[in-house]
Specification:
Elements lengths: L14 H8 L3 H11 L5 E2 L5 E2 L2 H15 L4 H13 L22 H13 L3 H14 L2 H21 L5 H21 L8 E6 L7 H12 L3 E4 L6 H11 L3 E5 L3 H5 L4 H5 L7 E5 L1 H5 L10 E2 L4 H11 L4
Parallel strand pairs: 3-4, 3-5, 5-6, 6-7
Antiparallel strand pairs: 1-2
The structure holds cobalamin.
The site of cobalamin has 33 residues, from helix 7, helix 8, helix 9, strand 5 and helix 13.
């Protein structure tokens, strides 16, 4: 883990984003600021508090001390002493994104409410349901238990002629925006292993691999998300001077999956060669397909994929 002093002090995160990243409620954060003068966040032109990566790490460190039974006033005094001696603490690993204490309905109920909100094209309701889900569950559950079932339902409804393609586009555009905002809200660590994620050539379904990008960045990796339809030769060229440790591509059709056949051989010519990995719906539909693609299959769920990424990068 990096030292807190090495993290950026550029103010860029809203109190809401900081709450999602630290698990500390905005009201608690404001109380800590007032009572202990622990942070003095920058105020934007419209008076909103803006926090830096370093502020977030300080809040996480304090929460970690408080969770292990230390009074918050004592934790603040400890921190002040360390800073006065120029001995900033190491950043603690990320806390779960959800805010504790709220009674949660099963994720499927949030998924159903989200689907209904999309069917009404009600952006405000969709944002509220998603926010509630984030408060109730960790990120993997929000993805696997709320967003993905909602997308599957939207896909079925579109296929069966119950909704128009406009409704499907509205839902995916909304979710893409939310996922990108989440990705950008997590700090990037320059020194962490570098991962490139995107879609195989011809592939437009980018939301699954975007969710994996969010989860890997949350885990502390340096992550770049490249979006849909990445030409393999372009990717190899880019990788030859950016030197990612891992490249992940996603495919939802066999056609797109087979486009990845040459990726590993081409990437292996780069020194040091990045690890090549892949996944996506194409391999759920035809489990034999994975054996035809040279590289590392990451599995049929985001949770498994994250565990496999950690394994593949364990020695970096
Ligand atoms: C949104 C959407 C679109 C959007 C995508 C927008 C975007 N920015 O991503 C757009 C409009 C572009 C689109 C286009 C098309 N779509 Co579409 N789309 C969908 C929809 C509704 C959601 C897709 C999604 O994001 N799902 C969420 C993901 C995360 O879930 P998942 O794919 O099941 O993934 C699981 C695992 O594979 C894993 N996972 C997912 N990605 C990754 C990546 C990695 C690396 C790993 C390790 C794991 C992993 O996580 C999930 C489970 O935990 C699906 C419905 C559905 N059932 O998914 C249809 C669906 C996939 N689309 C379909 C079709 C037919 C198309 C089009 C051909 C339509 C057309 N006639 O143009 C085009 C194809 C475009 C192309 N060339 O890729 C069909 C596919 C049918 C089939 N044969 O399999 C579906 C199933 C709809 C349906 N019910 O018929 N689509």
């Amino acid at each position: 883990m990096p030292n807190i002093a090495d993290l950026s002090d550029e103010p860029k995160f809203t109190i809401k984003a900081v709450a999602a990243q630290t698990g500390i409620r905005p009201v608690t954060m404001r109380a800590w600021e007032r009572r202990y003068e622990v942070l003095s966040p920058y105020r934007s032109e419209n008076r909103y508090r803006l926090y830096s990566e370093r502020d977030i790490a300080i809040l996480r460190w304090l929460k970690n001390r408080s969770d292990s039974g230390v009074a918050i006033s004592t934790a603040v005094a400890e921190l002040r002493k360390m800073i006065a001696q120029s001995q900033w603490p190491e950043a603690v690993p990320q806390m779960p994104a959800h805010l504790p204490g709220k009674p949660a309905l099963p994720p499927a109920q949030y998924a159903a409410r989200l689907t209904q909100a999309f069917m009404r094209h009600d952006e405000t309701a969709a944002a509220e349901v998603l926010q509630e889900a984030h408060e109730a569950f960790d990120l993997t559950t929000v993805f696997e238990g709320v967003i993905i079932p909602c997308l599957v339902e939207i896909g079925e409804a579109w296929y069966n002629g119950i909704i128009r393609v406009t409704t499907e586009h509205f839902a995916s555009a909304f979710l893409r925006g939310k996922l990108l905002a989440l990705l950008q809200a997590y700090p990037t660590r320059r020194s962490a292993p570098f991962i490139l994620l995107g879609c195989a050539p011809t592939e437009q379904h980018e939301l699954g691999v975007l969710m994996l990008a969010v989860l890997t960045r949350k885990q502390g990796y340096r992550v770049e998300f490249l979006g849909p339809d990445i030409p393999i030769d372009d990717l190899v060229d880019y990788a030859s001077y950016e030197h990612p440790a891992l490249i992940v591509l996603s495919a939802s059709s066999a056609l797109a999956a087979l486009e990845m056949k040459t990726a590993q051989a081409k990437l292996s010519k780069i020194r040091p060669a990045p690890v090549f990995a892949f996944g996506g719906r194409a391999f759920d539909l035809d489990p034999k397909l994975a054996a035809q693609i040279p590289g590392n299959y990451l599995g049929n769920s985001l949770e498994k994929a994250l565990a496999r990424v950690n394994e593949l990068l364990a020695d970096r």
